[in-house]
Amino acid sequence: MDAELITTELVDLDLAEHDRRDVVRSLAKRLVAAGRVTDLELFLADVEKREAQMATGLEGGIGIPHCRSAAVTAPTLAFGRNAGGVDFGADDGPAKLIFLIAAPEGGGAEHMTILAALARRLVRAEFKQTLTAATDPAEVAAYVRQEVAP
Amino acid sequence: MKFVAVTACPTGIAHTYMAAESLEQTAKANGDTIEVETQGSAGSAPLDPQVIADADAVIFAVDVAVQGRERFDGKPVVEVGVKQAINGAAGVFDQAREAAKAGPSKPALTTKVGANDRTGTKVRQWLMTGVSYLIPFVAAGGLLIALSFALGGYEIVDAPKVTDQFDAGSLQGWAALMFQIGSAAFGFLVPVLAGFIAFAIADRPAIAPGFVGGAIAVTVGAGFLGGLVAGLLAGGVVSALKRIRVPRPVAGIMPVVVYPLLGSIVVGVLMYVVVGKPIAAATTGLTNWLTGLSGTSALLLGALLGLMMAFDMGGPVNKAAYAFAVGGLTTGTGTSLQIMAAVMAAGMVPPLALALASTVRKALFTEVERENGRAAWLLGASFITEGAIPFAAADPLRVIPSIMLGSATTGALSMVFGVTLRAPHGGIFVLPLIGKPLLFVLALAIGTVISTVAVILLKQLKAGVPESAGTTANTAAVSA
């Protein structure tokens, strides 16, 4: 059985940090704790490398820092919410919903379909609304899992 | 409107799919249809070529090079970044609508190969794609050479190069010019055949290796057969090269630089060192065998060439017989001129016979076939054997044996009658260049009648009237 895309421990509905790098680090630590990332610094460097290519902030208050990294063991999502917003470089302002997507290096196509399904949900208004309104981390994890289920 | 799109981003994890989703949702909201190929890490299912063909416009929402971009050649294209498709899909569709209105960028090369064809069909389609691009060269070159013979007589073959000597005031000068232009066109036959067989197999990157292989086939004396092999090799090699996964940043240069280069090296080495000589030997053997037959049994040779001419109506076998005949023209011996006459007469039989059959027994043919039949008169008279293809495609088991029977008869009779021909092409329009023209027409008429009777009998054995209009292919092409 593959690891779930997201679990309750990988959800932070009230991120304390306000800087992009701090937010990513905070969420990444949850990935390490969950055993999805083996090397925090390598993973953060890979995320930063991707971010340098083009900012991952999207209109509508979303940030999707992501990377493929050798430090990742399974396709995983860490989700964080920040009421004040974190600047991910989007034109229309800071991101309030942050999706940190971790993909293993050289993962097979089958593994990646779950991330593809996740990405598709990110542009759906309903998906964003549900995550904005959610109050319970377990509820968020269950909702995301159910949405990306094949 | 109908759209297709390709989405791709550097990591292939997030934006690729977000852009696809955004485009799909927007299309749905607008009442448009769209199919998106996501070139991301979850693998990508290539768009059906038919869907691409049907689309009004193509949207590339990409931050990296589109893989297989040549599939969209000739379509109106809008290219934007992935973020634009995610955040402003509506605007992207507006652009695409504008592009569709402006029309296609440029006409694209086409292939006869369908996506879902079976292997046997595919091989035939590869060869026919090559042949279809070959035909204009045969037409231009063949008719120019025939014209030069008509203007300047057969000795025009030995005229000095027009670059050394050209007299605009003399008919001989113009005849020599026509002959040398025609010869230049003929010089492309084998490379074009090889290049476009390769193209049919592995798309545009295979054209260069195919042409190069074809040119080498000519150099090593492997001729038409060598061209077939070179084309198949080039297609195979480039197909194999395309399977190698490459990092995204270099993917863009693969089709324009790497595949042509590596493909040409591999095909060139194989053609020069490995397969060229045996094929050349086989070609020489075939030629010698056919030439030997002409000494012992003119009748048998004529019949054999006739069978070859009718067998695939302009395909590889037909072209092999034709290449043999044209190859003899330059030697100028009496036998080779007889062979040329037999080959042309035999090649004219299939379309003429089907034109006749569809005229005298209309009920046995579909409406489409009857229309093709009217065109087939002219095609047959012009020695365009392909005129029979629509009929053979619809009902091969009845049509092909019938036309082979008639063509063999005509070929044999032409040889026995001793009819000669100096021109490599032209059909009834080069009658003045034919020795014993009345006997040529007689041989042609007998074979045509035999094929006509055969095809009518075979079709009557089949109960009822044909219901399928399975062919709309109106091949207007010059054959040999």
Automatic annotation (TrEMBL), chain A:
It holds the Pfam family PTS_EIIA_2. Its EC number is 2.7.1.202. GO terms for molecular function: protein-N(PI)-phosphohistidine-sugar phosphotransferase activity. It is found in: Cytoplasm. It comes from the Bacteria. Residues 4-147 form the PTS EIIA type-2 domain. PROSITE patterns: PTS_EIIA_TYPE_2 (PS51094). GO terms for cellular component: cytoplasm; membrane. GO terms for biological process: phosphoenolpyruvate-dependent sugar phosphotransferase system. The keyword Glycosyltransferase does not apply. Coiled coil: none annotated. It is an enzyme of class 2 (transferase). Keywords: Phosphoprotein, Phosphotransferase system, Sugar transport, Transferase, Transport. This is Fructose PTS transporter subunit IIA. The lineage of its organism: Bacteria, Bacillati, Actinomycetota, Actinomycetes, Pseudonocardiales.
From TrEMBL, chain B:
It is a multi-pass membrane protein. Residues 1-98 form the PTS EIIB type-2 domain. It is found in: Cell inner membrane. Pfam families: PTS_EIIC, PTS_IIB. Signal peptide: none annotated. GO terms for biological process: phosphoenolpyruvate-dependent sugar phosphotransferase system. PROSITE patterns: PTS_EIIB_TYPE_2 (PS51099), PTS_EIIC_TYPE_2 (PS51104). This is Fructose-specific PTS transporter subunit EIIC.
